[in-house]
């Protein structure tokens, strides 16, 4: 390196700050930086936070080098919190080098701040979690990511499970052992868990030491469907019942298995503020069995499907026939599940929802939307994509009801995208009604109104909206000229 170059004149503290940003891209970066010059080597070795991200692949093709690397990383990180990331293809208890690597990491468990595990199967995930959680303290561990993955060959080898069978090959047994290990581990700051798996623990599972994941506040579940097992609403609810302090929950399903009837008590989540449901047919069962009085953000994403697999044991609801057939949407089955689930959630919890996002998620008729809006007085932001919602809903939002009350009086941001059933007449009426100042107790003025690719909203209506609101985002669908 040229001595008089600008980068050579930087003080070591600033170099260390730059190097720390580089380590986010790749964990091996500190070694490469230490081979540039004497100054850089001294700076990297004397900066413990550069060595706090440890990644290993097991079994290792070069075990001696891996052991040396991990020992160096652990020594140079000092007392700083470390992030451990493991990719384990197989669990070999007879592999001396693999056991040595794992023991080195486990001996520093008190310095773990984050742990990421990617395993080739549920069995490997179980063995790894049992190994790390057995009789060890994790004083500052705050986040854990667990991901299981399968190759095509692995999926073919998994035996087909009968519903309710608890055989030895049931992956739910392995996942149950994983969660039992988490519950029995001393980790007072553990508050975030992200899992990508094909099954959840068996029903009525518990731990002998701690009955709940009392510190957990953030939980994200991503279903990895492998053709033989599925994550049902009951298993999700049983897990949520073990997390009474939960504040943020996301479930991303596979939309393969049909909805099943759920016979269990309502799960009490008094602190839950964010709820996201993505690609699932279990929206009705989940929403109907949650008590969430503190809910502020509700996002329903990719729940619209024209066809849904049938389940002969699924119980219908009397409200399913109490609709005008002319109001049916293009995906009436899934829209019905969403609408019924929302009604029950709102009746049970009376949540103070401020943000409501429906991205390719819909309800079956305008009166469902109007009922929901009537019971969300704190709503400030509403977004809907790919809906068959009609002007009837917009007219209801544009003026007070017979009792003189406005729907969603605090609503200030609206976004309609790919909603082909609404027209320019409806959006103009909504814009005008929500922004008039001649009423003493009128609603909040709209600050943002986005109309995106709505085929029946013309440019003339947008011009009127622009005049009324001043701030309107609008994109019109291009029309192909023959």
Give an account of the 3D structure:
32% of the residues lie in helices and 17% in strands. With 482 residues, it is of the alpha/beta class. A 14-stranded parallel sheet has the order 1-2-3-4-5-6-7-9-11-12-13-14-15-16, with helices on one face. A two-stranded parallel ribbon has the order 8-10. It is globular, with a radius of gyration of 27 Å. The termini are far apart. 36% of the residues are buried. The C terminus is likely disordered.
Protein structure class: alpha/beta
Helical proportion?
Answer: 25-40%
Uncertain runs are 151-167, 317-328, 476-482
Main beta sheet strand tally, sense and closure: 14 strands, parallel
Q: Mean pLDDT score, rounded?
A: 82
Strand-residue proportion: 15-25%
Spatial extent as radius of gyration = 27 Å
> In what order do the strands lie side by side in the largest sheet?
1-2-3-4-5-6-7-9-11-12-13-14-15-16
Number of helices: 15
Count of beta strands: 16
How far is the N terminus from the C terminus? 63 Å
Apparent shape: globular
